[in-house]
Design goal:
Helix content is about 45%, strand content about 5%. It starts with 6 loop residues before the first helix and ends with a helix.
């Protein structure tokens, strides 16, 4: 994903049109439970940019097409 795209705004837009979306992965070193003082720039970069889209057993191809169309639309709006 382009570094200039705001992942959180993208998630909000997808949710508003009924597409399940969330943070794609977490950076363990910034989670309060670990109380880490480590610096992990690559992990933080991935955390800030990763996006998880619908993925489940009975996901229909039509649902994938709709998610892809909205994702493309919203990404184009970000540019």
């Amino acid at each position: 994903m382009d570094k200039h795209i705001n992942r959180n705004n993208l998630i909000e837009k997808l949710i508003k049109v009924g597409i399940q979306a969330q943070i794609g992965t977490y950076a363990s070193h910034i989670q309060p439970v670990y109380q880490s003082k480590d610096k992990c720039p690559n992990s933080l970069e991935i955390f800030n940019r990763a996006l998880a889209l619908p993925l489940y057993y009975n996901l229909k191809e039509e649902d994938i097409d709709v998610a892809a169309l909205y994702l493309k639309k919203f990404l184009e709006e970000e540019k």
